[in-house]
Design a protein that fits this description.
The complex is a heterodimer of chains A (about 300) and B (about 300). Chain A is mainly alpha-helical. Chain A has one domain. In chain A, about 70% of the residues lie in helices and about 0% in strands. Chain B is α/β, with parallel strands linked by helices. In chain B, about 40% of the residues lie in helices and about 25% in strands. In chain B, strand 1 and strand 2 form a beta hairpin. In chain B, helix 3 crosses helix 4 and helix 4 packs across helix 5. In chain B, about 45% of the residues are buried. Classes of the chains: A mainly alpha (about 300), B alpha/beta (about 300). Chains A and B meet through helix 1, helix 4 and helix 5 of A and helix 2 and helix 3 of B.
């Protein structure tokens, strides 16, 4: 220690023009997403659930079974996949808090809404792409398995005759006539497959939003499971007059309509149309993320 | 340059930081000394915009952290060792930070080399020891080559060689004209690492001084005296070998003599005393606060 105070060399940091913006924040989130193994594992597990359950539900029908909606039948695995996919959505946010990484993240990008926006966009794009791939894969596999089970001969001939006569037939009869399987050209089928993928993707983002509010992995996953699995059970236990009024608002029922070609099964009761339901689901997600953003900005990291 | 003004933080009913004001200047290492639980980490978090103050403000380079255009290129912080996803590799962690602030990729390997983690760059952080975690934290702080560095207890978990390395690093960074703010609860460590000190206890500022001054003042005892005849007493004390500093409030601080000695001296000369208070030295004050912190920890 010297008594003489030396004049310190002045230090000037070299700064580029502009400032940290959405593009930088997204680049960081992209690297973050793919640099932990849990991302790939949860995606693979989601895929196994969606496609595996599809194989189980379509591969085990007997030729005499009448299938109400072959598209829905092939996409039913989405209900299992959403639970695993929701875990990934939760982890994208909650892992930051669980490990303390959030402090590094926010010191690099202190404008917190920017961090959440980057996460939503990066995970959202991944979610939509992966979910659509899974939905189309499950549909293709399911229809292949269904048509392999059905003898084509008689029903195909009848179908041709019906078409020639221009007779309008109900969807389930149509399905039987077309050999028990659906094709993307049939009415409502493409919409149902795309809708199934979108439903899965949006639920992932809903999970991310819940995790932003709740911050704890276990708590956020429980809440998510509560919303998609437990809530329907509670509603079902209510008197029919009430459950009929409420059931259509449940994410799981909206999803069921979205990946059905002609409305939900009767047990669901009155339901919204697929796109109205989807809009509602998006609204839930936006509100949840908005609340999450408010919490993120207000609370200490 | 870091400027804290009236900084306060409350957690429920507990006041963690209480009306704290201090400056941290460039070109020197400033130590942030206080017992565990005295509010050092909370203050550091407020500087980096992670916690928001209940009142008061703190700026870095004249701005709130939130308003820095390229935070990592301006401020580097080591707040907690191993606050990193255990499944991510050291390199990937630094890469995410680099990409967020448009820092060129080669810089990642450069700082890994600098902290001696090149050989484990691809390993998952979960497998790291506390010392390796500290080194990675320091690498993250240095990544953007910033002019301001905050290190919260950087020597925790380091071996003696690592501790010496941190000391040298801090001095070198300050020598380059950077602002270096290092916290510790160990006075001995601070004496070795820092030139200036900001000392806090229970969230309050105790002293803001140079290390040399701190050491000198803490080895002397002082007595606060109030009397209607200050000149007479002042002369008597000086003759008896003491030193007198007149305080702005009209009282005076005597060093070099104990309270009983000052009292006896006044009695001998029939000088009335209105106050005679032994003032604890800074070190005493610091130790007292440390003891309280220890008691508190033992009780909980």
């Amino acid at each position: 220690m010297t008594a003489v105070v030396e004049a310190p060399a002045s230090f000037e940091a070299e700064l580029p023009t502009g400032r940290v913006g959405l593009r930088r924040a997204m680049a960081a989130e992209w690297t973050k997403l793919w640099s932990v193994r849990s991302t790939m594992w949860t995606l693979v597990a989601t895929g196994l659930a969606v496609v595996g359950l599809c194989a189980l539900s379509t591969g085990t029908v007997s030729p005499s079974d009448i299938i109400d909606d072959p598209t829905r039948r092939s996409l039913i695995g989405i209900f299992l996949g959403q639970l695993i996919f929701g875990v990934l959505g939760v982890l994208v946010m909650s892992a930051e808090y669980g490990t303390g990484t959030i402090r590094a993240t926010l010191s690099a990008v202190p404008r917190r809404p920017l961090v959440l926006t980057a996460k939503v966009l990066v995970f959202g794009v991944v979610a939509v792409v992966v979910s659509e791939i899974l939905a189309f894969s499950a549909f293709a596999l399911g229809q292949a398995l269904l048509s392999a089970k059905h003898a084509v001969g008689t029903s195909a001939a009848v179908a041709q005759r019906v078409q020639q006569l221009g007779v309008k037939v109900p969807h389930n009869v149509q399905a039987v006539l077309s050999g028990g399987s659906a094709s993307l050209g049939q009415s409502g089928v493409l919409r149902a497959v795309v809708g199934g993928g979108l439903y899965l993707a949006v639920l992932g983002l809903l999970a991310l939003g819940l995790a932003t509010i709740i911050r704890h992995t276990a708590g956020a996953i429980s809440t998510f499971v509560g919303v998609v699995l437990v809530l329907p059970l509670i509603v079902q236990a209510l008197p029919i007059s009430i459950s009929n009024a409420v059931a259509r608002y449940l994410p799981a029922n909206i999803g069921l309509v979205m990946f059905s070609t002609h409305g939900a099964p009767d047990r669901v009761g009155p339901a919204f149309s697929p796109w109205t339901g989807f809009a509602l689901l998006v609204l839930y997600t936006v509100v949840t993320l908005g609340l999450g953003c408010w919490v993120l900005v207000r609370r200490d990291a | 340059m870091i400027e804290a003004r009236g900084l306060s933080k409350r957690f429920g009913n507990v006041v963690a930081v209480d009306d704290l004001s201090f400056d941290v200047r460039p070109g020197t290492v400033t130590g942030f000394l206080g017992p565990n639980g005295s509010g050092k980490s909370t203050t550091m978090r407020m500087i980096m915009g992670l916690d928001s103050p209940a009142s008061g403000s703190v700026t870095v380079l004249g701005r709130r952290y939130h308003d820095l255009p390229w935070p990592l290129r301006e401020v580097g912080g080591l707040l907690e060792a191993k606050a990193i996803h255990p499944g991510r590799s050291a390199r990937a962690h630094l890469l995410t930070l680099a990409r967020s602030n448009a820092i060129a990729r080669p810089r990642v390997d450069e700082v890994l080399e600098l902290v001696g983690l090149t050989s484990v760059a691809g390993k998952r952080v979960g497998k790291f020891s506390l010392g390796m975690g500290q080194r990675l934290g320091i690498a993250a702080a240095l990544l953007g080559d910033p002019g301001v560095l905050l290190f919260d207890e950087p020597v925790n978990g380091l071996d003696p060689e690592g501790i010496r390395w941190v000391r040298t690093l801090c001095k070198r960074l300050a020598g380059e004209g950077r602002t270096v703010f290092v916290s510790s609860h160990l006075m001995a460590e601070m004496a070795l690492i820092a030139d200036h000190l900001v000392v806090i206890g229970k969230g309050k500022l105790i002293a803001e001084t140079s290390v040399a001054d701190f050491v000198a003042r803490s080895s002397r005892q002082s007595v606060k005296v109030r009397t209607p005849a200050p000149h007479q007493l002042s002369d008597a004390v000086t003759n008896a070998g003491g030193t007198v500093i007149a305080d702005p409030d009209g009282s005076m601080t005597v060093t070099g003599l104990s309270a009983p000695e000052v009292g006896d001296l006044a009695a001998e000369m029939s000088i009335a005393l209105h106050e005679l208070t032994p003032v604890a030295s800074l070190e005493d004050a610091f130790m007292e606060l440390t003891d309280e912190a220890v008691e508190f920890r033992g009780g909980s």
